[in-house]
Amino acid sequence: MAETIDWHARAKALRIDGRCVIDGERRAALSGETFDCLSPIDGRSLGAVARGREADVDAAVRAARAAFDDGRWADKAPAQRKRVLQKFADKILAAKDELALLETLDMGKPIQYALSVDVPSTARCIQWYAEAVDKVYDEIAPTPRSGLALITREPMGVIGAIVPWNYPMIMAAWKLGPALAAGNSVVLKPSEKSPLTALRLAELAVEAGLPPGVFNVVPGYGQEAGEALALHMQVDAIGFTGSTRTGRRMYEYAGRSNLKRVYNELGGKSAFVVFDDFADVERAAKTVAGSMFFNQGESCNAPSRVFVHERIAEAFVAIVAAEAPAYAPADPLDAKTVMGALVDDTQLKTVMGYIDAGASEGARIAAGGKRALSETGGYYVEPTVFDGVANTMKIAREEIFGPVMSVIRFSDEAEAVKMANDSSYGLQASVWSDNINRAHRVARRLRAGTVHVNQYDEDDITVPFGGYKQSGNGRDKSLHAFDKYTELKTTWIRID
Fold this sequence. Notes:
Elements: H1 7-13, E1 20-22, E2 25-27, E3 34-38, E4 45-50, H2 54-69, H3 78-94, H4 96-107, H5 111-132, E5 139-140, E6 147-155, E7 158-162, H6 168-181, E8 185-189, H7 196-207, E9 215-217, H8 222-231, E10 237-241, H9 244-256, E11 261-265, E12 271-274, H10 281-293, E13 305-309, H11 313-323, H12 345-360, E14 364-367, E15 371-372, E16 380-381, E17 384-387, H13 394-397, E18 404-410, H14 413-421, E19 425-426, E20 428-432, H15 436-445, E21 450-453, E22 468-469, E23 486-494
Parallel strand pairs: 7-8, 7-10, 8-9, 10-11, 12-13, 12-20, 13-18, 17-18, 20-21
Antiparallel strand pairs: 1-2, 3-4, 5-6, 6-23, 14-17, 15-16, 19-22
Helix pairs in contact: 2-8, 3-5, 3-7, 4-5, 5-6, 10-11
């Protein structure tokens, strides 16, 4: 289907509404200010977007608080909330072409993946939490017979959600699904680099029957709208996905305001460990290439640190280097493209700076390493593979958020585990071994929220997503996400 659509023609015909969505209606920023939304594909202007500030955030939070307090959503029976959220998911699927186009234009990912991954994953998340909400039971504690202790989950109130630019719809859905299903109201602040699908999702939610004020979107800059949301005294919890640097600020903002709950999903520097007892070296190498270069490497769980046993390292690097050209960046609006543009010029300069740092520290570029398609006016980088990387190098320590892979050689299991864990991050990891004892042993020793064995990136909404250490706290996805957006209440009844 994607191949039969002229996406460039659709892009030209697209009309952007960048106003906030507050209390169920579109509103300009109270200051009247806007910012220009630029496409990383070629630098074109997509339109003006409202520059939300403290006053706009306050209006959205007040609308969300009023909606929560009068019970227009929170007091609905779970089955009623389920029906509305199911309609919301249906609306998302019905608008798949529009949403996919907005996502591609806004942040540069290939249209084929926006259609096949981002839109259906967003709808699936909303659908799953809609189905889950009337199947999660409360508890009765095993107290003495003189008492009856009820343990119930209640919605927190107003949830502030702040999401990044790499998967704008999916990251929003991971917050919206459990928060709305539980009965909360939400104020969403999308990244200023990719605000368009969030605004459209809010409109679709209202069309599906979500009451006004329950889901609000305020676009704007992090230091203005994001900070105002995190500091607001009427926000009960913040669900944040983004950089570790900004995640630290979320805790500071909570301490300066009302000690709101803070749930951070932060960066990663995931370890991909391949032992010499894994027979299919080619499959491991092709898997890491596909996972690393997917979404232009702009994924917090990208397997950017690849630890390979020294006996198979030469063959492994040769395969990965040979695979890299298949991921060469191209026009994101071409249905055959597999790697698109980096999100903006700042990210392009950041990635190129890391490539320069890797080369200057002595790592060898086995593939890529250059900017691509500069004549388009967009922001493209070749898929890049470094060999001979030391775990102490900058490219092995810091999150690059671009298509740059570091191959690090090891001699034995103990060394591999030590180096894999020698990171401030702990989001995901992968172990490749045909020895079942080693696979289990190493998986247990790796300090990461998810450890894949003989695969990478297989995923489902039913399993939690989150990390150890500076990769954050709390978990998105699965039933565990309800823990972030509900309060546990004990009601103790004395029985005479």
